[in-house]
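Forwarding the complex inputs:
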Amino acid sequence: MPRRALDNPLVLAVLGLLLEHPTHPYQMLTDLRSRGGAAINRGTLYDVVEALVAAGWVAPQGTERTGNRPERTVYALTDAGHDELVRRLDSQIRTPQREFTQFLGAVAHLGALGPDGAVDALTERARRLSDRIEADGDHLADVVASGVPRLHVIEAEYALGQARAELAWIGSIVDEVRAGSLTFPTRED
Amino acid sequence: MPRRALDNPLVLAVLGLLLEHPTHPYQMLTDLRSRGGAAINRGTLYDVVEALVAAGWVAPQGTERTGNRPERTVYALTDAGHDELVRRLDSQIRTPQREFTQFLGAVAHLGALGPDGAVDALTERARRLSDRIEADGDHLADVVASGVPRLHVIEAEYALGQARAELAWIGSIVDEVRAGSLTFPTRED
DNA sequence: TTCGCAATAGTCGATTTCGACTGATAGATT
DNA sequence: AATCTATCAGTCGAAATCGACTATTGCGAA
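Prediction (whole assembly, four chains):
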């Protein structure tokens, strides 16, 4: 029975999902994954839901059964859960955190690749990133055109904006390394 | 004795640190933290180092002792460790991952705050973010002016760029909500 | 000078997270 | 009709992560 599990990033995701409508964990998983939610572990999700129930933010709504697959317990947001969701949302938006993305961590040691290796890797990233930006942009336009309220896709807009900024930055770094204005120290500081 | 720990983000950070010079875990901790590295758990760090030793990427170099504080074991990067570092760096730069930051997760459910709550929270974030951008920008300029090679601070430049893009995005969203061009659906999809 | 407090290092049991396993059903293939 | 595969749902022991605890030193205040 998890207790510390309440500061897992999944907590917000699950609460947010249940705000839309009650569901069972397995459905949450497919929803979260389809929304780009990277590899979420099933076991972890069940643990989180259990912790949420213990915290009183979520309550079992009843059970369903299709055929005789395992029984599915449907959970719904409680009032306390709704309050908690709003509280977390508000505080996470208000206070910018320094987030440590993988790329940031890798860039910190770019020197280890040497100028050629760095240009090479960055160029490939730029290519892939720009493909993705185009694909995501198109997809976003389609979705909005199909009548989905824009509010429901702004996180995708945000992500797209960040990706565009990253692409621009990569471009400028590659140019500078090529032009020799960003030099790679040979050995030691 | 950890075995799966080798895909922890700390691995790259530790390997990168040891590329600069051998040290003991406690020092790594202070270094990582001072470089903005958010709350890193001490116990976890020791576990990771142990796993790195088991993997042969890092080797104890000897022990030091100041006063009679606990003995400090100094670790250094092995050749295999250096290779592994380069491999990881290269692959993490080449392949852009969809990273799930807290803010992204929160923005996804912005609707739950209602138009006023959203504007309020976003405005405060924008203010804090812009303060930080200014402070970080100044700091960066100072550091570079003091002769530190730019390559050693590009991750800070990158982070600054992302922060600026975020700030611009927040500004546009706030404007649109105020202007009424981004509407908040009242109930349900 | 003595007390308290912050910093120094590290250990280890408790908690959380993971992912392999189970076992059933619907649809496709031969 | 028999078999194969993908999807559905969830459980549980093993592995990773955490954070409370220990013990020493050095500094500033009382």
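Residues 4, 24-26, 29-30, 42-43, 46, 66-67, 69-72 of chain B lie near DNA strand C (CB under 10 Å from a C1').
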